[in-house]
Write a structure and sequence with these properties.
ABC transporter involved in vitamin B12 uptake, BtuC, two-stranded antiparallel ribbon
């Protein structure tokens, strides 16, 4: 008997915690059901303010039931009948609070009207529900929505998210959302904590929220006012740094485009002394080559259309190089040493190429889609985004520059090009085939321009006259950097890009362009050979 009693005692001790847990869960379920039922009555209120508060409260409760109610209201399936809130779906009427089917016809239900204010409240409610999602992207988007629209009703949701969220980026956004809500708290300690937390933001808009807390009439607590001043200073410092980084990046991005446009010109102008006014149209040929490759991928390889840009790189190079060879063999070869005639001839060629593009592709711009891996950007701060397409183009410019440097300094052709650049007559005397070097150099320079056109197609309009906007800037880079000098072209392109962007932020695009031109004129008068001059006895030739 004692053994049997001991056995039942051990079993009771084992079952007791399970019984307590079951009772607690049941009690929590009843509390949640009662809360939902009371809150749902506000969804049918005539006053939209009360209805919006009820929507936010439903979102704050969380759970699948709340998600179903919010989804039904968004879809126009939520209504009232017999003093209760119901959902009408596929002709069936169910109770919104419990999900139980009701013996009502759909025609007896009064649908709840949704206006713009209600839609905004629904977005907040959905965000509150998505904070519990298993997908990081949904949680981040929800946190960003609540950061800008949270109210005191969803504060418990934010606090729960802070306890459970492990992603640092999402935690930071949720922390800012909770801080914005606590700015209106009656407790000075909560306001102080909120003001201090908002000082971690890089959003210039947060500064506007904190400025009223500097006024003693609005904020009686001196500690909160001091914290607000410190937070505003920190935000201004952070925003200034982010904007400067963004401006430098924009300058480097512009510089990379100028470098791709001018790199080929630096080779051809340095080797042959030809003022090629058709160089911009070689950019245009590379861009149209990318357009044709995109069409081929869409027609024959639609599943790989995201990678058409990679195939367009060799296509743009060889298309522009082929046109360059034809130009050099048929026209420019007979105009060496005649700068005015070569300038007029290449200008005429540029007009011919523009008209040919209009005939073949039409006068309107053509559409080139950005691949998905080049879309979007990296956000440094609110309003400061580094686009992925410009980051890729910057890396591509560095890659092309490296290839050109290797070609010029590590190959026999590069040695011949440098020899012809320094002294054509002497190079010919020692056996350098100057005519063939001219053709190959012009082909390579034109091909590099085609690569620049492929890059430009991802950020600029592609049309027959697209090259006209880059020819002057290309010559500025070449002349400022030094004829035939790759290092000079790099410094000139990046320098002009960064200086132009900083001047645009200070004085506008037109004044910035004028100031840059004035600087180049003054610089060339002082140093005609450019930043990097040719060295040796033939530097003055």
């Amino acid at each position: 008997m004692k053994k049997q009693a001991s056995h039942w005692a051990r079993r009771a001790l084992f079952l007791l915690p399970l019984l307590v847990a079951f009772l607690l869960l049941a009690a929590a379920g009843k509390a949640r059901a009662a809360l939902d039922e009371a809150t749902l009555q506000g969804l049918g209120a005539a006053d939209f303010g009360e209805r919006i508060a009820a929507i936010e409260a439903v979102g704050a409760t969380g759970g699948e039931r709340a998600r179903a109610i919010i989804a039904a209201l968004e879809a126009g399936e939520l209504g009232t009948a017999g003093g209760r809130v119901v959902i009408v779906r596929d002709g069936r009427v169910v109770d919104a609070a419990s999900g139980e089917a009701l013996e009502l016809v759909a025609d007896a239900v009064d649908s709840l009207r949704v206006n713009n204010r209600v839609r905004r409240a629904l977005a907040v409610a959905n965000a509150a529900l998505d904070l519990e999602s298993g997908e990081r992207a949904r949680r981040l988007a929800a946190a960003q929505t609540l950061r800008d629209n949270a109210s005191e009703v969803v504060l418990p949701v934010l606090e729960r998210a802070l306890e459970s969220e492990e992603d640092d980026a999402i935690r930071e956004v949720v922390l800012l959302a909770a801080a914005r809500v606590n700015l209106n708290a009656d407790d000075p300690a909560k306001r102080l904590k909120a003001v201090t937390a908002l000082g971690q933001s890089s959003d210039a808009g947060v500064k506007t929220l904190l400025e009223p807390f500097l006024d003693p009439a609005s904020e009686p607590d001196a500690g909160v006012r001091e914290a607000a001043a410190a937070s505003i200073a920190a935000i201004e410092r952070r925003v200034s740094i982010a904007r400067n980084i963004g401006t430098v990046f924009s300058g480097l991005s512009l510089g990379s485009i100028l470098l791709l446009a001018a790199l080929g010109l630096a080779i051809t102008y340095g080797v042959m002394g030809i003022i090629n006014m058709a160089h911009g149209e070689l950019l245009m040929i590379g861009a149209y080559a990318a357009f044709l490759v995109q069409g081929l991928f869409r027609a024959h390889l639609p599943e790989y259309v995201d990678w058409y840009v990679l195939a367009a790189i060799p296509a743009g190079f060889f298309a522009a190089a082929a046109v360059g060879v034809v130009m050099e063999r048929t026209v420019l070869r007979f105009l060496y040493g005649r700068p005015l005639e070569s300038l007029l001839a290449t200008w005429g060629i540029s007009l011919v190429l523009i008209q040919a593009a209009r005939v073949l592709f039409g006068p309107q711009n053509v559409e080139l889609a950005n691949p998905s891996w080049m879309s979007g950007g990296m956000e440094l701060a609110a309003g400061v985004v580094l686009p992925w397409n410009r980051i890729v183009i910057l890396g591509f410019a560095v890659f092309v520059l490296l290839l050109v440097w290797l070609m010029m300094n590590r190959t026999r052709l590069g040695m011949f090009v440098r020899a012809v650049t320094q002294n054509r007559a002497m190079a010919g005397c020692v056996g350098v085939p100057t005519a063939r070097v001219d053709t190959l150099a012009f082909a390579i320079g034109a091909g590099i321009a085609g690569l620049g056109g492929v890059a430009l197609s991802q950020i600029a309009n592609v049309g027959p006259a697209m090259g006209q906007g880059y020819i002057v800037d290309s010559f500025m880079v070449v002349v400022l950097g030094g004829v035939g000098q790759l290092a000079g072209a790099v410094w000139a392109a990046m320098g002009l890009g960064i200086v132009s962007k900083f001047l645009e932020g200070w004085a506008g695009a037109v004044i910035a362009k004028i100031l840059v031109l004035v600087f180049i004129i003054a610089f060339i008068q002082k140093r005609p050979q450019g930043i990097f001059a040719l060295k040796g006895r033939f530097a003055d030739n």
